[in-house]
Amino acid sequence: MASADHIKALLKSHLEGDEQRFYSVAMQLAAHEAKLGHGKLAEELRTLVDKAKQRRGTTSQPVPIGKPRGELAELLSVSYPKTRLGDMVLDDALERQILRIIREQRHAARILEHGLSPRRKLLLMGPPGTGKTMTGSVLAGELGLPLFQVRLDGLITKYMGETAAKLRQVFEATSQTRGVYFFDEFDAIGSQRGLANDVGEIRRVLNSFLQMIEQDRSHSLIVAATNHPEILDRALFRRFDDLLHYELPDIPHIGLVLESRLGRWAEASVSWTCLAEVAAGLSHADIARATDEALKEALIEDTAKISEADIRRMLEERRQVSRRLASHHE
Question: Does the CA dihedral 100-152-212-66 come out positive or negative?
C-alpha cells in the first residue's frame, strides 16, 4: 500500500495546485508499488497519470500562484515569462545544454520513477549581456513555471545570522511552490572564502548556501548566474547539476541577431555580415539595444526602411556607451 509520505505529498501538491509535483509523486508511488510486487497496480497508476497529462496538457499550463507575501515579498519578485528557446541566438553547444535541461524537466516523472534526477540546479557563467538572465526566462517560459528572481537587496543584510535565515526562507519556498528560482549576481554570496575582502557574515552565508542547495529535494529549478566565475568558491561547482558557459557572440551569430531583429524593417541592400563585423565584441544585450534604437528612430522619422548606415551608427553609439560603462566599473 501507499506510504504515509506519498499520501501526504499527493494531498499537499493537489491543494497547492502543483500538477507537475502531483504527477511526479504519483509516478514515485507507482514505482513503490512495483517494488512491492504489485505490478498490475503500478501499471494502472502509470496509465492514469499518462491519461491525465494528455488531457490537461500540464507542460504548457502555468502554475497558479499569487505573488509572494509577507517577508517573501521582500526576497522574491515573480513573473510569468513567455520567452521561448527560439527567441535566443546561441552557439550549438549551449543550445543543446539548455534543450536537454528542458527535456529532462518535461519528462521528470519518468526519470524519477527510475531513481534518477533531472537537471535542475544550474550555474550560468559569462560576461554581462550574453543571455544568462534571459535563460531563466526561457526555462520558465518553456516549462510553464513562474520565475522567481531572488532580490539581493532584501536578502543580504549587515546583521549576523539574518541573511542565512532569509536564505532558508527562499529554499523553503522552492519546496512549497515549484518554479524557477533565479539568483543573479551570485558572486555576492558565493565568493571564495578567504578573499582579502571576505567578512565573517558572508562566509557564514556561503556555508549556509552550500548546505541548503545540497539538501534541497524540491522539484523547483535553482539557477545562479555570475559574471565573475573566477571568484566563486570552488566548493560551489560540484553542488550544481550543470554548468553553462556564455560567451560574447561571434560574427556569424551577430549577423543572425541583427537580421532576426531588423530584417523585416531594413533595406534589401543591407549587408548583415558587414554590420556584424562592426558589432564584433558587443554583447547580445548591447546589440539588442542598438537594434531597438535604430527601429525607434525609424518610427519617429517615419522612414520607410532602415538603412545600413543608420544601423551602423547605432551600433557604434552603443559601443561608445558600453566603453563608458566599463570605464566606470574599473
Answer: negative
Q: Which three cell numbers stand for residue 228?
A: 565573475
Indicate the pairing of strand 121-125 with strand 76-79.
unpaired
pLDDT per residue of the chain (330 residues) written in tens, 0 to 9: 456 766 777 777 676 666 666 777 777 776 666 667 676 776 777 777 777 755 554 443 444 455 666 778 889 999 999 999 988 888 899 999 999 999 999 999 899 989 999 999 999 999 999 999 999 999 999 999 999 999 888 887 767 678 888 999 999 999 989 999 999 999 888 776 555 444 556 778 888 999 999 999 999 999 999 999 998 989 999 999 999 999 999 999 999 999 999 999 999 999 999 999 999 999 999 999 999 999 999 999 888 899 999 999 999 999 998 888 776 655
C-alpha dihedral sign at 279, 281, 285, 289: negative
**Strands 121-125 and 180-183: what pairing?**
unpaired
**Exposure string for 33-51, b = 16+ CB within 10 A, e = fewer:** bbeeeeeebbeebbeebee
Distance CA 255, CA 279 (A): 9
What domains sit in the chain, N to C, each tagged with a CATH number? 4-60 (no CATH), 72-245 (3.40.50.300), 251-329 (1.10.8.60)
The type of residue at 313 is R
- What residues contact 302, with CB distance under 8 A and at least 6 apart? none
